[in-house]
Write a structure and sequence with these properties.
two-stranded antiparallel ribbon; 17 helices; 2 domains
Length: 418
């Protein structure tokens, strides 16, 4: 065994000693510090992982994992182009759907209220497939929306004071009409038959969906679309599809994946996650330094016991193992309780957030700032285990110097001074 029965007995007796004074207090502070550090790290990394996955699935998922543009701004004969893409085995095997999109900026007006929005023309069956998970639909089913009818976000409908069946006006510079007095913006009125709640503030407050044919007429695109979205089975594996499309399509087409289109956002999210990990790891490091001071005081307090044990034949290696076991046990216990606490908090982070919001009367998670209506959390077992292992490893490293100091205690010198 790694530790003998004698080593375990002495190490645990030192840990459980009730009259260690200030050293005992420092040990408790170390244990609580490691527990809180591990729990905080688990909660923060779970929330950051939840942010990453939720935003990826909602922002990137709705916009396509690979997007094809034309340098002229419009793609004609898009159905032929989609069939041509599907002839590539790489594209056909990797994609779940290929969707033509007609998109443009508009101003929405209703009941004296105005709001900027993005109008997106899409086939309703494609929209229904993209919003099937985690999206609440109010009014008509998406598949029942006809030409000339709109689907808008619930937050946008609320800000405009619009109810299902009401009409809104869309004002766009695309397809503007030249007149003797200058260019007039294109203004059209459409009834709102359906609204949606995705839990993604950017979409709920700023998007208007309409059938593809309606958008083509309104944006004056003719039989063209602005881009084509490709949705992949594995969003992380876009390189093969992008390279296949670049080789397949003429040079006038531009191919981008979700990393290119969201490079700043994804990069900022990753940097924030790494920085938060390093900052919060300082809690565990400080707790590890407390273990050093606790064990140094323990060695000084138990110097007579160490000298007696050495005279009875306990080797220096055994003395080192005794104090290593004593200090590492603090790390193991702290990491164990911290892991349990962190996983529980991460699992119930949204109810906890709602409770504190109710208790303080303040909005602790404004949707317009964080883009989400609920605080997400994703517990990754490998991350949880990794955090616990790092905490235990730091606790182990903190015991090396005190253990070495105990092992090198001169029993003759100690007993002579007693």
């Amino acid at each position: 065994m790694l530790f003998t029965k004698l080593e375990r007995k002495i190490a645990f007796r030192y840990m459980a000693a009730k009259k260690r004074g200030f050293g005992s207090v420092v040990s408790w502070v170390s244990l609580i510090g490691i527990m809180l550090g591990v729990a905080t790290l688990i909660v923060v990394m779970s929330v950051m992982g939840g942010f990453h996955d939720t935003l990826l699935s909602r922002i990137v998922g709705m916009n396509g994992h690979v997007v094809v543009y034309h340098q002229d701004g419009a793609i004609a004969d898009y159905d032929y182009l989609i069939d041509k893409m599907k002839q590539s085995k790489t594209v056909a095997n990797a994609t779940t759907s290929i969707v033509p999109i007609a998109e443009g900026q508009v101003m929405v007006t209703a009941r004296g209220h105005n709001s900027g929005a993005m109008v997106r023309g899409i086939r309703m069956k494609d929209l229904a497939a993209k919003t099937a998970t985690g999206t609440r639909i109010y009014g008509k089913s998406l598949n029942d929306v006809k030409d000339g009818e709109l689907v808008i976000g619930s937050s946008l409908a609320r800000s405009l004071g619009v109810h299902m069946g009401d009409s809104v006006s869309l004002v766009s510079a695309n397809g503007a009409t030249p007149t003797a007095f200058g260019t007039m913006p294109r203004i059209m009125s459409y009834p709102v038959l359906t609204s949606f709640f995705m839990g993604m503030y950017e979409y709920d407050s700023g998007y208007v969906f309409m059938p593809l044919e309606t958008a083509q007429k309104y944006l004056n695109l003719g039989n063209s679309v602005t881009h084509i979205d490709l949705f992949l089975q594995d969003p992380e594996d876009t390189t093969a599809v992008r390279d296949a499309l670049i080789e397949l399509l003429p040079e006038s087409f531009i191919v981008r994946d979700w990393r290119d289109l969201n490079r700043g956002f994804v990069g900022a999210l990753q940097v924030e996650s790494n920085v938060m990990f390093l900052i919060l790891m300082l809690i565990v490091i400080v707790a590890a330094f407390n273990i050093v001071s606790s064990l140094v005081m323990l060695v000084k307090d138990k110097s007579k016991d160490i000298a007696v044990l050495r005279t009875f034949g306990v080797s220096r290696r055994s003395m080192m193992r005794i104090f290593i076991l004593s200090g590492t046990s603090i790390g193991v216990i702290g990491a164990m309780f911290g892991t349990v606490l962190g996983v529980i908090v991460a699992m119930y982070i949204e109810p906890i957030r709602k409770f504190f919001q109710w208790a303080t009367g303040r909005d602790l998670f404004p949707a317009e700032l964080y883009y989400l209506s609920e605080l997400p959390s994703k517990i990754v077992p490998t991350t949880v285990i990794g955090i616990a292992v790092i905490a235990i490893a730091l606790a182990f490293l903190a015991t090396i110097y005190p253990a070495w100091k105990a092992a090198n205690t001169d029993p003759v010198e100690v007993l002579r001074n007693e």
